[in-house]
Amino acid sequence: MMKSEALMTTPTEQNVKISNVKEVLAYLAQQFPACFSLTGEAKPLKIGIFQDLAQKLQDDATVSKTQLRQALRVYTSSWRYLESTKEGVARVDLDGATGELIDASQAEHANKVLDESKARAAEKRKAKIAEAKAKQATVAAPEKPAYKKTANKKPATASNQTKVSPTSVKPVVDVPAKPAVTLERITAEHIVVGGKVLLKLGQNPMLATVLEVNKDDVTVQLGSGMVIKTRQDSLYLA
């Protein structure tokens, strides 16, 4: 009987060391499902939850205190967690029991951190898009090598010269500049999968098709086939 139980021992029971934050969070969600989650709406955590975790897992060699701190920092700074930190929502302990309510100052701080995080993410996306456009332009228009002009050994004969008829020369006509296009920001109800929108990249808006809508994040496909994930505030009515 003891031999059979030894064969059924799980990796957790053998204290297999976890190596990254993602695995730590998955482990916490497995051990404390009423407190931690990996998908859906997150629950605000009790203040001092780290001490509770350290005490509960003090004999568990799977995770260290340093990993717990890192995992809690990542978990509580995620957009999903910050969006759940609203005034009047109760915090939970490791067993899911509700405790103190989030006050206005705590909710305001969480909302400020969320806005700053989204702004940094938007700047990174813009930088990546600009970098991709620069690379694409470099590939499309490679620099032409300079060729040294050499003199013709034989003068061109009259039969090889092209005669230009005066009637074939067309006068140059000034083309009036196109007026600037006025863009109208699009509202959330007009952003639907399969719908057409205008995406402003640089100075020129480009027609795109909506592929996916995830809250403020929208994934679109340009006419060239390029798929871009952008923000709702970067889209305009087509």
Topology diagram in text:
Elements: H1 2-7, H2 21-31, H3 49-56, H4 65-76, H5 79-84, E1 90-92, E2 98-101, H6 104-140, E3 196-201, E4 204-214, E5 217-222, E6 227-231, E7 235-237
Antiparallel strand pairs: 1-2, 3-4, 3-7, 4-5, 5-6
Helix pairs in contact: 2-4
Structural overview:
This protein has 238 residues and is α+β, with helices and mostly antiparallel strands. Among the domains are: 16-114, Fertility Inhibition Protein O, Chain: A, Domain 1 (Orthogonal Bundle), CATH 1.10.1710.10; 183-238, SH3 type barrels. The protein has six helices and seven strands. The strands form two sheets. It has a five-stranded antiparallel sheet with strand order 6-5-4-3-7. A two-stranded antiparallel ribbon has the order 1-2. The longest helix has 37 residues, at 104-140.
Structure summarized in a few sentences:
It contains 6 helices and 7 strands, in the order αααααββαβββββ. With 238 residues, it is of the alpha+beta class. The protein starts with a helix and ends with a strand.
Strand pairing plus helix content: what structural class? alpha+beta
Number of strands: 7
Range of helix content: 25-40%
CATH architecture of the domain at 16-114: Orthogonal Bundle
What's the CATH topology label of the domain at 16-114? Fertility Inhibition Protein O, Chain: A, Domain 1
Task: Identify the CATH homologous superfamily of the domain at 16-114.
Answer: ProQ/FinO domain
CATH class of the domain at 16-114: Mainly Alpha
User: What's the helix-strand series?
Assistant: HHHHHEEHEEEEE
Q: What strand order characterises the main sheet?
A: 6-5-4-3-7
* Largest sheet composition: 5 strands, antiparallel
Principal-axes shape call: elongated
User: Termini distance?
Assistant: 71 Å
**What integer value in Å does the Rg equal?**
31 Å
Integer average pLDDT: 81
